[in-house]
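Recap for those who missed Tuesday's class. We walked through two folding examples back to back. For each one, the amino acid string is listed first and its predicted C-alpha cells come directly after. Nothing is annotated here on purpose, so try labeling regions yourself before you check the end of the notes.
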Amino acid sequence: MDFADAMEQALLERDLPVIAFYDFFTLGHQLFTAGTWKGENIDPLPEFWDRSMANAALKRLDKKRTLVPDADFRSGVWRVAQSTQGGYAQDIVCMVDPYAHVSHLSAMEAYGLTDRTPRALHLTTPKREVWKDFQAKLIRRDLIGLDSARIPVFRRPGIGDEVRRRPIAIHETALPWDPMSLAGRQTRVTTIGQTFADMLVTPRLCGGMHHVIDVWEAEAKDWEDEIVDAVRQLDNKIATVRAGYLLSELLGLENPVFSEWEAFSQRGGSRKLDPDSEYVPKHSRRWGISLNAY
C-alpha cells in the first residue's frame, strides 16, 4: 500500500466531512511514524514528513477526487468526497477551527433560552495571538518526535461569509471560555452559565439588552449556580455588576458572592445597564449603574 492510499483509507475511517490542513498534516505524521496501516506496510514510505510531502499527498488525493477544496473557506480546508457525514455549519466550523464555539444568540437558541432564530450563526474564536498560543500547545501534543524544522507554520483557516449556505458571524476574544461539546456532534458551545454571562458582556450580540432582561427574568433563577460560577470567571467588572443587579434586584435573589461583586460598583459613575443606550439619571444605589434599559 503506498502512502497516498494509506492516507485515503485513514480519511475514510475518520469519516468526517471536512479536513483542515493541520489535521491532514497530523494524520500524515501518524502514518509516517507508524509505517503501516491496519497491519500492512506502507511502501514506499516518504523519506521524511514536512509541508512539501503533505502538499504532494494532497495533490495525489485531489487528483483522485478523494479530497476537494471546500469553497466555504478561503484556503486550507477540503471536503472528504466519500464521507458518509454531512454536517451542519456549526459542526463544520468547529471541525476546521479547534477553538471556535457557538456563542451569543446562537447559544441562547441552542439552549432554548430565546424564541428568536438568528439568521447568522454566531461563533467565537480566540484572537490571533491567543489562537497561536493554543495551537503551539496542540503541536507539542500531536507532533511528538517531528523535527521542529519540518513543522510548518499553521494558520487559522479563513472562514467565508457563509458556510453550508448559513451566514456566519465570527467574534474574536482575548479571554476565551472553555466551552462544552454537544454529545454525538462536533459542535462546541458555551455552557449555559457562560451563555448567560455573555449576554451581559455584549448584549447587542444576544438580541439587545431588552431581550436579555426578558430572558434573565424568565430563565435565570433556574440556573443561578451556573451563572454565578461563570460570572466569577469573567474579567469584566461592569458585566459582573450587571449580573449582580439582575440577580438581586430584578429577581430578588441573595447570594454570599454578591458582597464580593458589590466591590466593583462605582458610586456616581457613568456605568450603564445597557451599554448601547443613553445614560439616564435613574440608577441602582447598590450596584452603581444607570437603569437605562427600562
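Example two. Treat it independently of the first, because the proteins are unrelated.
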Amino acid sequence: MTNVAELHELRKIYQMGTNEVHALNGIELSVATGEFVAIMGASGSGKSTLLNVLGCLDKPTSGVYLLDGHRVDQMDDEQLAAIRRTRLGFVFQSFNLLHRSTSLENVELPMVYLGIPRRERIRRARAALETVGLAQRLDHMPTQLSGGQQQRVALARAFVTEPKLLLADEPTGNLDSRTSAEVLELLTRLQREGNITMIMVTHDPDIAAFAHRVVILHDGQVVYNRPSPSCGGPEIPHIKTIGLPAEPAPVPAATQAPQEAA
C-alpha cells in the first residue's frame, strides 16, 4: 500500500527574539492511501504547526515532507500554492464560507481555481451538495443556514475536487453535540466511500476514535501512534497525562477500518 504523506525528521523552529521555539522536533509519520488519522495533543504540542506544514501553509525548517511522491519541503511559494489547489482539501472549525455567495457558489470556488468549465463546476457542485443532504439549499447564503448545514457545505467544498489529502481542523468544534455527531458520521462516510486520505486534528478522544489511527504529539514529537479503538486499538490515553516515552513510539503499519459484514 502506498503512502500519500511521509514525514521524516521534520522540524519547525521559530525565532522568538533571542530564543528558539522548537514547534516540531523530528516528526516521523507516514499516512497510507485511504487512511484516516486523528492527531491529538495538548495546547503547545505542535499539532497546529504540523497541520499547517501538511497543508503547505508553512514550510518546515528541516526534514523531508513527501506528498503524493513530491518533495514538498523543497518547493517555493508558487509551487506550494499549486499543491494546495490540486492535491489538498481543507475543512475548518469556523467553516470559512464566503458570506455573499450561495452554497452552490461556495462549493464551485475551488474548481474555479482549477480552471474547470462552468457547466461542469455546477454539475459537480450540485452533486456534492446533494451528497451531503443539501439539495434544497443550493441558493441559500451561509447566514440562512444552521451551523451544521454550513459545515456540510464546507465538507462538499472540500471533497468536490477529490483531493489526495484532506485536512480537517477541529471540524465539529463549533457545533453542539448532536450536530457534531451527524457531521462526523457524514465526514467519515464521505472519506470511506471516496477512499480519501484524511488527517484530522481534534482534542476529543471520542471524535478521534472514529479514525483508523490515533497519533498524539507532545513537545513537537510523536509519543503515541496506535490503531484507534474502532480498529482494535487500545483506549486512547488522556493527552494531559501522556509524556515522552523511554523509547520512540513505534510506527505501526497503516491501519484500515474493519470491513463491515456482508
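Answers for example two:
Helices lie at 47-54, 77-87, 103-113, 118-131, 147-159, 177-194, 205-208.
DSSP finds seven helices and ten strands in the chain.
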